[in-house]
């Protein structure tokens, strides 16, 4: 049986880690990855799981060339650098050029909701923090699309369930963990397309296994749609107390956005649910996780986050 080797970006992180986990469920798939610190616990567990791990950096061509040799698939997930918004595209182009050189056939890029058309969102703000992130990814999407690989796939994941765990929750929802209270730019009727990052791993792996079916496909994915209040109630259940929600007025939001960019993010997320077609997501036949299952699977991190 012939094997297919996938170069997984960010394997020590959330999305890349989920891709590796799912790749290893198929005996014919192997994974190569780089890490900036080979001695970190995340690197050690990747090695133990069977990933061929190389020292490297997205900014270092030679390390990427060495690590990507022998790979026919490339999973791209990059971090936007708000201090230098050209970096994400530069890293993507570097990865794509080397991937071409070493014979990669299929590129799967994990992007973000409505990256192709952010201007269609109700609270689109051309100067906003979220817009900058989306436009940075838009350029990467275009680079992937036009790079001329035999197969390409763009998946656009929704709101990560991991955002509700440390360290993210403490930045994104200040007050939730320590005071059981959230002050938010959401409205009571907001519905969030939540994604278990493990499902990103499932979709990416499925794409590598069925390149013809996924070729040229670009689509939003979510695991479960959850009302914001339903999500808060679920977290209150975890904490064993009721979480108080303070909905901000538009004037309060406008005044706070310059010092708290996450509020701009919440404003944009008010109509996020309109971007996803769950019928289409389910039509791929990939089993989707739920927030309840996520909390159970990640119970150690949940306990550490909420001090329970
Ligand atoms: N949070 C959400 O709801 C959401 C929704 C949609 C899309 N996204 C997007 O998802 C991305 C974040 O993904 P994630 O949560 O998987 O990130 P993450 O957990 O923070 O992992 C980042 C990974 O990238 C690696 N990395 C960063 N810079 C590197 C470099 N210069 N060279 C080599 N490796 C490098 C890190 O490696 P080290 O171990 O060396 O640090 C780590 O493995 C962002 O682009 C974000 O916009 C997020």
TrEMBL record:
It comes from the Eukaryota. It holds the Pfam family NmrA. InterPro entries: NAD(P)-bd_dom_sf (IPR036291), NmrA-like (IPR008030), NmrA-like_oxidored (IPR051164). Residues 3-260 form the NmrA-like domain. The keyword Kinase does not apply. Keywords: NADP, Oxidoreductase. The keyword Ligase does not apply. Belongs to the NmrA-type oxidoreductase family. This is NmrA-like domain-containing protein.
